[in-house]
Amino acid sequence: MTPFPAPEVRYVADVISPYAVLSLLFPIVLIAGVGGLIIWRMRRRQELLRQRAAQVASVGWYPAPPNPWLAQIAANLFREGEPGETYAGVYQGRGLCVLDYTYVTSNGKTQQTHTVNLVALTLPVALPPLTVMHESGLRRMLRGRDLELENQQFNDQFRVECVDDRYASAVMHPRMMECVLFNPGLEWQIAGNAFVSWSVDGFAVPDVLGRLDAMTRLIDLIPPFVLRDYGQPMFS
């Protein structure tokens, strides 16, 4: 009697190829890596916020509820978004407010979250709105005319937006323009009884202190007759 051949035994290692193993492991490793990166970024952000809170406390500022009025200025400058951490305090005798603000843009397929920060110092009176921004070809096309002043270097680098040319010319006198050119990174706006500047990313205390110094010098250059003739008193 002819014996039947023994059945062939194939082990799992022979059945599953190394490529199949890699294809199974790759998504797991990728997910673990992305998860680890997210956790690291969250912890890093929390640590940075703790460090910033300590710096804020060291200069005497304190947490405050988000300022709706300042958040609306941010929305007008950028787009509707969400106010973040807010701090208030005093700088050289003027009330201040510092605000983080986030908003989202979309191209129809993907979304991107942007973070900016605003710093506001109080003025002694409420003044008509005036905005000083960096000039660019795109802004010139989209936003139209701005005030042309006698300093061409200033006109090339900045644009002044204001509905009242006489008032804007009074504010933007030669010494004011020189001070703006000396602080070329600063964009700012007079909004009621506040002098507001803004910058990208969440605020950093050393940067804010530098901006506050520049903002104070600009406020001090607003002529007294502008405060008298155009200002409206603020009532508490």
Set down the secondary structure blueprint.
Layout: H1 12-15, H2 18-58, E1 62-63, H3 68-77, E2 81-91, E3 94-106, E4 111-134, H4 137-143, H5 152-157, E5 158-161, H6 165-171, H7 174-182, E6 187-200, H8 205-220, H9 224-230
Antiparallel strand pairs: 1-2, 2-3, 3-4, 4-5, 4-6
Description:
The protein folds into two domains: about 1-60; about 60-230, no CATH class. It is built from nine helices and six strands. It has about 240 residues and is of the alpha+beta class. Strands 1, 2, 3, 4, 5 and 6 form a six-stranded antiparallel β-sheet that branches. The protein starts with 11 loop residues before the first helix and ends in a 6-residue tail after the last helix.
Shape verdict: elongated
The span between the termini is: 113 Å
Largest sheet: 6 strands, antiparallel
- The total count of strands amounts to 6
Indicate the proportion of strand residues. 25-35%
Our Rg estimate from Cα atoms comes to: 28 Å
What is the share of helical residues? 40-55%
- Average pLDDT for all residues: 87
Unreliably modeled segments: none
Quickly list its features:
single chain; 236 residues; alpha+beta; 2 domains; 6-stranded antiparallel beta sheet; 29% strand; elongated
